[in-house]
C-alpha cells in the first residue's frame, strides 16, 4: 500500500490529501451463509474491508503528517437489510462502518472523516424487492443523481 501511495503522490506531484474508499464485490451466487464457501467469504471481506483498512491505515499516517485532509468511506445500505445471500457483503460493509466510527474518534482533530451508505439503484431492484425495510426500496433520490 505504501508503494501505491508513493506512486500516486509522485504522479500528482503533491502529498496525499484525500482518500475515497468504495469497494463492493459480492458473491454472484448469493449463497445462504450455510452454503458460502470460505474462499468466497475471504475474497469478499479481503477486498471490501481489508482493502479499506489498508488504505485508511496508510492515508491516516500521511494525512496527519501532511497537516490534514479527508477520508471518505462509502458503504452500502444493505447492512441493515438482513438479506440472506448477502451475508459476507453486508458484514464487510458493517466492518467499514464501525472502523470509520472508531477512526473518527481519534483522528478527527487532524483529518476530516466522511462516511455514508449508498442506497440502491434500479439495477439492484431484484436485491430490494423482498426487503422488509421500506426505505431500502426508495431509489428515487439516488437515481436522480445518476440521470443528470
TrEMBL record:
GO terms for molecular function: oxidoreductase activity, acting on CH-OH group of donors. It comes from the Eukaryota. Pfam families: adh_short (PF00106). InterPro entries: NAD(P)-bd_dom_sf (IPR036291), SDR_fam (IPR002347). This is Uncharacterized protein. It comes from Taxus chinensis (Chinese yew). Belongs to the short-chain dehydrogenases/reductases (SDR) family. Keywords: Oxidoreductase.
Amino acid at each position: 500500500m505504501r508503494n501505491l501511495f508513493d506512486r500516486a503522490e509522485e504522479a500528482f506531484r503533491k502529498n496525499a490529501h484525500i482518500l475515497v474508499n468504495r469497494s463492493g464485490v459480492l458473491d454472484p451466487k448469493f449463497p445462504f451463509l450455510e452454503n458460502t464457501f470460505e474462499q468466497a467469504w475471504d475474497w469478499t471481506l479481503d477486498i471490501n474491508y481489508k482493502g479499506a483498512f489498508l488504505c485508511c491505515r496508510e492515508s491516516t499516517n500521511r494525512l496527519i503528517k501532511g497537516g490534514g485532509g479527508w477520508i471518505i468511506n462509502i458503504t452500502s445500505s444493505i447492512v441493515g437489510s438482513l438479506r440472506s445471500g448477502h451475508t459476507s457483503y453486508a458484514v464487510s460493509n458493517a466492518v467499514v462502518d464501525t472502523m470509520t466510527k472508531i477512526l473518527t474518534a481519534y483522528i478527527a482533530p487532524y483529518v476530516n472523516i466522511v462516511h455514508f451508505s449508498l442506497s440502491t439503484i434500479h439495477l439492484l431492484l431484484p436485491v430490494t424487492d423482498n426487503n422488509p425495510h421500506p426505505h431500502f426500496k426508495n431509489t428515487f433520490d439516488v437515481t436522480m443523481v445518476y440521470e443528470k
